[in-house]
Amino acid sequence: MFKVAIVGVEATGKSTLAENLAKHYQTIWVREYAREYLTRLDRKYTFDDVLTIAQGQQRLITKAIAQNPSLPIIFVDTELLVTHIWCEYVFGRHHSWIAENLSKQNFDLYLLCNTDLPWEYDVLREQPSLEKRKEIHKLYEFYLRKLHFPYELIEGKAEQRLLSAVQAIEKHFKFSDKNFQNGDKV
């Protein structure tokens, strides 16, 4: 099974891309746990909430892989790199659990969504400034290189973004479309 992580700054189309790729390849995608968690939270999130989110995301990923071992590919909407950078940028420090487990991740490919989409308001989003979003994007590039994680930059709007991602996937993996099963979010 190929495991593809979709990462990047907020409002770069990660969730939409994960869902669209799952439909394209007729497989599953693992949703972003942070959105679910923060929507239920009745206060401002804390440093420790980000750890809880990271651990919740890891549980979803582990469960999806365990329940679908015969799938040729799955997509994951955010993972530990996202929470690691989130902690660094918002709180100026890292959780040791996230840092330790980040280095052990084994995704076959990371799709790094660029900041070329316009920021759209969402109650959970915090960074409308394109300058700050580009600054955070540079952190993604830094860590992907530092950790030697294979990645491709994904750009474009709507269909072009999906096409960019499909081309990146086809560049890295060889598999037959007939192996894919019905796709949905888990």
TrEMBL record:
Q: Where is the NadR/Ttd14 AAA domain?
A: 3-161
The molecular function terms of the Gene Ontology recorded here are: kinase activity
Q: SUPFAM superfamilies recorded for this chain?
A: P-loop containing nucleoside triphosphate hydrolases
- Sorted UniProt keywords: Kinase, Transferase
Q: Name one Pfam family in it.
A: AAA_28
Instruction: Tell whether ATP-binding is among the UniProt keywords.
Output: no
Entry annotated with the keyword Transferase: yes
Looking at the record's lineage, which domain of life comes first?
Bacteria
What is the protein name given in its UniProt record?
Answer: Putative ATPase/kinase involved in NAD metabolism
